[in-house]
Amino acid sequence: MKLLLLPVIVAVFMLTGCNDPNIEHPVIEDLGMVGVMGFDYENENEMKISVTLPQPSKDAQEQVQQFSSIVKLPHQAMMDISTLTEKTLTPAQLRVLLFSEEFARKQGIFKVLENLYRDPQIGSNIFIAVVKGNAEDILSATYKDKPEINIYLTELLTPRNITAFSPFTTLHQFINRETDEVSDPSTPYLEKVDEDSIKITKVALFKEDKMVDVITPEEAKVVEAMRGKKKLPDISITIPGAEGDEEHLVMKFVDSKFHAKVNGDLDKPEIFLYLYVRGSVVDYDGVRLLSSNDNRIIVETETGKHIEDKVMRAVSLFQELGVEPIGLGEYFRLRNAPGWTKEKWLEAFKQADITTHVEVRIVSTGTVR
Question: Which one, 163, 193, 259, 293, has the greatest CB density within 10 A?
């Protein structure tokens, strides 16, 4: 009888005696809150993951702890790095994911994002960006007169009107655009411009889940307009001058409207893009008196031509690369639902005959004379 009870006693002991509450439910002081994860290319099967942990102690010499590990899957890094720190690592406060350009071009980022997306501890509003050089170097650098790196990167990637040219992309948004049937994702592109600053310099374009190219901030602004953004950030315009030289102005846009007209034929696609913008001139170095209606019409016309050129240069690049970050495929899918595929749309988009017209209205010049 005693021999029969022995396994039961051992099982009860294991269930109760080993149930340490400090292991299952560590207090907040024992948690290492991962703020940023950086991904660098190691080889075709492995990645180098760097994580940053804010230091809660005011007496700590460094504001942030940083650790790195070479692994095949992102959660393996969390497991490995947990053995290097006295903290229990948690991704519950993860705010930013950085991918080196090499990693984004060679390995692609969707598999990583998909694995992180499965984790219920990780929020879907984490910001994503591609960086020039190594993500580890970005995270390990010291930025004078800036907040600690977790806060600095989060604030840098938080959408603001002045930087709205950048398609601030979250984990959810990237996966949504990657898996839909009409468009491709894009992300901000960061560079370390000096020893103390990081800057959003470009926008990274993705085909499927790999980065293929970048576009300039000015081109990205018109792309945002074509994606339906109502209020655009300030834009710098160059137009022919009244006396032969070039003139420059900065427009602050009040609002914009975009419409695409398509013929719906995937064999011979035709697309007409119409963009209407209203804005105020806040800087101008030309000689035209903008209070004159005739002069204002000239500036509006030339500004429209300038933006048209930006639109066509961006669209031509998209056709050449076979990427479509605007989402024009939705107009065609409404007419070609049976048998629709993203691959079929991208092939049609490459050969599409695209024309555009931009209409500009200046609502204020700030003229005092």
Answer: 163
